Amino acid sequence: MNIYDISRLAGVSIATVSRVLNGSDKVSDATRQKVLDIMEQNGYTPNAFARGLGLNTMRTVGILCADSSDIYLAKVIYLLERELWKQGYASMLCCTGYRLEEKEKYLQLLLSRSVDALILAGSQFIEEKSEDNGYLCEAAKKVPVFLLNGVLAGSGAYSVVCDDALAVKELADSLIERGSRQPVFLYRSPSYSGKQKLSGFRRSLAEHGLCPDGRSFLCPAGIPETARFLESLQAEGLCFDACLSSDDELAAGAVKYALAGGKRIPDELQITGYNNSLLSVCSTPEITTADNRVEFLCTTAVSLLMQVLGGKDVPERTMYSANLIHRATTRPL
Description:
Layout: H1 3-10, H2 14-21, H3 29-41, H4 48-55, E1 60-65, H5 71-86, E2 90-95, H6 100-112, E3 117-121, H7 134-140, E4 145-148, E5 158-162, H8 164-177, E6 183-187, H9 192-207, E7 216-218, H10 223-235, E8 242-245, H11 248-260, E9 270-272, H12 278-282, E10 289-291, H13 294-309, E11 317-320, E12 323-325
Parallel strand pairs: 1-2, 1-3, 3-4, 4-5, 5-11, 6-7, 6-8, 8-9
Antiparallel strand pairs: 10-12
Helix pairs in contact: 1-2, 1-3, 5-13, 8-9, 10-11
Protein name: LacI family transcriptional regulator
InterPro entries: HTH_LacI, LacI/GalR-like_sensor, Lambda_DNA-bd_dom_sf, Peripla_BP_I
Keywords: DNA-binding, Transcription, Transcription regulation
């Protein structure tokens, strides 16, 4: 069945069928119902792509993420899809990995599918070299591009970010107030978010008269890997009485390291995570962490996106604060 068959069976023009499909009010209720009945009787499903071209919208948003198996990004994807569905938009997901070539390839694939907008979940999409971000700037000239936990100044893209620097500074301040004098900071990558968190750690130590040099480390992902990494730091003679982590997985690895080495938490080693994920409460003891309010992040991004698609002006950068969640891996005041 196609639109011509529906037109013939309903005894109306092709233009009338098209108006019914597009929800036009220029069709009488009786005619509309007649066309809809013919469609239902014959199992007719309109071609979404062709209809989208006619309406100049596919009502589809492309979502890019580096790794959907990451517990944080998995929740982001779920929340984005839920919020977009509420607004009547479908989503198309591409998991790009971490290589620049793959990110660019998948972005171009989504653009070729005529998506209405792009959402880039996670700070892994902002490269250190500005020229490597050119493909994002070009995409932002074609469709709205929203960066979650990433900022690309002057690109025309929109950013919704948590103030990671402030959150980690407050976590470090809290540990120092609770007696720590030799903290270390573990982070996964020099992404935008990773750099912000590192700057917050270094700022806290400097303000408390502690030297931040040689106390921050790029750490391999994975709980066992983190535990082994901390064991190697100890074997090299580095002394530390607190471990701040850029995410809860690294913090869970720090808990594993402490338990395996017989270190008492939090008396001998205080530990903090980030994201307030399930890992922070599944751990024993439960992990002090920063709640970066992922649901607020996603609902805000989709709300702003709908405003942009509706022709409204919105700020290019929206920043909000995290909440600190104190649990059993840090000492009471």
